[in-house]
Amino acid sequence: MLRRRPVRVLVALSGVVLVTYVAYRVIPVNATTVGFAYLLLILIVASTWGFLEAALASVLATLVFNFFFLPPVGTFTIADPQNWVALSSFLATSLIASRLSAKAKTRASEAVERQRDLERLYTFSRAMLLIDRSAPFAKQLVEKLAEIFDLQAAILYERHVGEFYCVGISGPEGLEDDLRLAALPEGLSAKHRPPYVIVGVRRGSEPVASMALRGATMPDSVLQGVANLVAIGLERARAQDLAQQVEAARQSEQLRTTLIDAMAHEFKTPLTLIKAATTSLLANPNVPTESRQEQLTIADEEAEHLRELIDDAIEMARLDTTRIELHPEMASLDDTLQDVLASMRTEIDEHPVRVLSHGPLPAMAFDKRLMKLAVRQLLDNALKYTSAETAIEMRAQVKDGVLSVEVTDHGKGIPADEQSRIFDRFYRSPSVKRQIPGSGLGLSIAHGIVRAHNGELTVSSRPGLTTFRISLPVHREEAA
Fold it and tell me: Which of 121, 411, 421, 462 is the right S-S partner for 386, CB 3.0 to 4.6 Å?
C-alpha cells in the first residue's frame, strides 16, 4: 500500500498539470471555470486515494491557479486583494473537501470491512453447526476458521484435553507455552507475537482454550467474536459428548433390565421341568428303572437347554455392547438350522414348522454359534407373532452365489412405516408392545450378526405374510 503512494502522488500532480494545460492552451477558460475544474479533480483524487494525495494536489493547483489565471499572469504576485480572498478560499475549500471526501471513503471502507467481518462470523457460526463427528470437533473447527477467514495458519489449544490442533503447519511452532498461558484464568484475551496473534477463548469467566492465528487482519472486536464462537462450539461439542454418554448409560441400564426380564421368562420352562423330574425322583425312590431313566433324561435335556439359554443371554449382552468378533469354521447351514429347531422344540411344539430345502447346502465358513443365535431370533420372532395353528416356514437355498435363509410367518404383518425401524435396538411396534412380551433386542442382534458375516438381513411384509431373509455371499471355493 505504501509503496504505491509515490505513484499515486505523481498521478495526482500530473492531473493538475493536465487540467492547467487544457484550460490555458487548448480551451482557454476564465478563472472561475478552471477553479471548479481543479476542485473537481481534487475531489476525485480524495475519494479514490485519500487525503495526502488530494492535499498535495490542492497546493499545486493553488500555485498554478495563481500563476496562470490570476493577474498579473505569469507571476506569483496578486495585484487585486480580492484575488487573495479567492485564492485562499479555493485552497481552504480544496483541503476541506479533500478531508471530507477522504473521511467518507474511509468510513465506507470500514463499513464494507465490518460487513465482511459480520458475514464471515455468520458463515463461521453456520459452518460450526454443520460439523459432523467423523473427526475431532476441535480439529474441524480450526480448519473451518482458517478457511473462512483466509488464515495462513491457525493453532487451537483445547485446555481440558491438553491437545493442540494445527492447520497450515505441522506443529505449534514453539507456541505451546504462550497458548497454555493464554488459556489460564489470568491469561490475556489477546496479544501479539509476530507473525501470530494469540487469543484466549473463554466461556464467561472460565478459560476453555486459546488460539494462535497467522495472517489475521481482523480488529480486536472480530477476534473476540471468533473466540466467543469457538467457545460456544467447544461447549456444544462437550454437551453432545455428555449427552451421548448419558444415553449410552441409559441404554446399558435398559439392556441389563431387559436381559434380566428375558432370562427370568425363558428360564422358567426348563427349570420347571427339571424341578418336576427331581421332585418326582426324590418323592418316589422306588420308581421303576425305566421311569427313572426317562425322568433323568428329561432333566438332563432341560439342563442342557438351560445352559444354552444362559449362553445365549451372555452372548446377547456381549453382542449389544461390543464389536462382534467372529470365529468362523467350515460347516453346513443345514446342520445349524436343525440345531436351532432341536433347541426350540418346546417352543414349537404347538406350531407347525415346515423346513423347505432345495438340495443340500454347500459348506461355508461362518460362526456356527452366532449364526444359530441369529436364526433362533428370527424363528422366535415368528413364533411370537403368529397363532398356534398358523404354519411357519423355513427355506434355505443357494442362487447366483448367494445363500439365503428365509423365515416366513402368516401373522398380521408389519406396517410399512415400521419396517425400516424394526432392526433398531429396543424398538417395538406400539400396536403390540403391550400385548406380546419382548425386549426389542432380538432382531437388532440378528441384524448385527448377519452384517458381521458380510451378509444382509431384510424383511418384506404385508398382512398375512412376513418374510425375514438372511443373504450370505458364497465364495467359489466354498461352493466347490
Answer: 411
Pairing of strands 465-473, 402-409: antiparallel
Backbone angles phi, psi at 152, to 5 degrees: -75, -35
Helix axes 31-48, 5-21, angle to 10 degrees: 160
pLDDT in tens, 19-64: 888 888 878 778 778 888 888 888 888 777 777 787 888 888 888 8
Residue keyed to cell 411396534: 429
Instruction: Point out the domain boundary residue: 85, 120, 155.
Output: 120
Q: Note if the pTM is more than 0.85.
A: no
**Cell numbers for 311:** 449362553
Position with higher pLDDT, 460 vs 262: 460
Q: Are 155 and 172 in contact (CB under 8 A)?
A: yes
- For residues 313 and 333, state if they share a domain: no
| Radius of gyration, CA atoms only, the chain | 43
3-class secondary-structure state, position 393: strand
Strands 456-462 and 329-331: unpaired
> Residue 243: helix, strand or coil by DSSP?
helix
Do 312 and 343 fall into the same domain?
Answer: no
For residue 134 the three cell numbers come to: 467423523
How many helices (DSSP H) and strands (DSSP E) are in the chain? 12, 12
Shared-domain flag, residues 475 and 341: yes
Mark whether 145 and 116 lie in a shared domain: no
